[in-house]
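User: Show me an example of a complex going from sequences to structure tokens.

Assistant: Sure. Here are the input components:
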Amino acid sequence: MKHPFNLSLYLVLDPDLCGGEQGMVATALAAVAGGVSIVQLRAPRWKKRQWVVAAQALKNALEPLNIPLIINDHIDVALLVDAAGVHVGQQDIAPEMARQLIGPNKILGLSASNAAHIHAVPQGLVDYIGVGPVYATGTKLDASPVIGLNEFAKLMQGKTLPAVAIGGIGLGQVAGLRAAGADGVAVVSAICGQANPRQAARALRREGATYDR
Amino acid sequence: MKHPFNLSLYLVLDPDLCGGEQGMVATALAAVAGGVSIVQLRAPRWKKRQWVVAAQALKNALEPLNIPLIINDHIDVALLVDAAGVHVGQQDIAPEMARQLIGPNKILGLSASNAAHIHAVPQGLVDYIGVGPVYATGTKLDASPVIGLNEFAKLMQGKTLPAVAIGGIGLGQVAGLRAAGADGVAVVSAICGQANPRQAARALRREGATYDR
């Protein structure tokens, strides 16, 4: 059965930004205590032996809390740790192929950066889209051009799936993005590496609370 | 059924060194015409959408020639294109887990750089080991320290599986490595990017011919 998921506050966890494997689990747990509803592990510079260890540790920590763990890019790792889902970008394994590997019972997320991407999302295969970067980001080196809030709002009008806004999002931007149609916001550095990840998450969650379902 | 394989001349194909996707297929076909017996695709800087396309193109080219295609590191890609096998390093997905994902009918290769690695190779799971780097190499940025021919010969005494020598191997070194116990040699730049990959392969194959089974 597919893990139920809620996009309202989506933590993209980069272990290199929050103290490696151990700091990563602590950050995730604090963030969940503060209101994070779903966690993705993204470690583009890591080799896969370390990936598997980290993913398993995160899954063990999140499963009792009923928080789904999404694995970025590496479907082999997701299968090994039986993660709740995978997230692929436009340069990663295509969603049709990703679905073929993961089967019907895992969450599949897809990044989209423009109207053409959103129009091309295969219906019935993908569970949510991540749309961005809305703002400039320093945490993704190969990010697409920045969209901005106005263009993001236009993209939300054409969406047929739940959508999470991503890219340079911090406090003060959540309400605007939710009002523009985002079902949630994804953050990296607004939580990872913050002195108090729990409070950081709580403040972000509170800002989006009006829109939470 | 597992693809039969012969390690005598093992081409590790780095598409960035041989003209991208198209040059890569042409290089592989020329190299096979010259005597390459098995081909691995290794593209550590590539994103996976491109990986899948390249792997499928190579498989289509090699399958009619009965030459097995091995995928480096990315087991998800290997599963998608139904490659003959996968090759993992000491920092990649562990061989036990790799075997779990690929099942019993694919070739599984493992890199080993020292006696401890060779001693730890799980028996009955791995089909061959790649031992090196024997010589200094410029084509693998995260390579282990160089072993040298004498140490390589010692490692061959403790092996319990077919072994292919790898790392900076070119013409003039094949006979010595085979005499030291290698079941074959793996090359990158001795074929990839050479003006005539077929002749380059033929010369390497000829040097090892005394030892071929």
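The lines above are the inputs; the final block is the predicted structure for all two components together. Strands of chain A lie at 9-13, 38-41, 69-72, 85-88, 107-112, 128-131, 163-165, 184-187.
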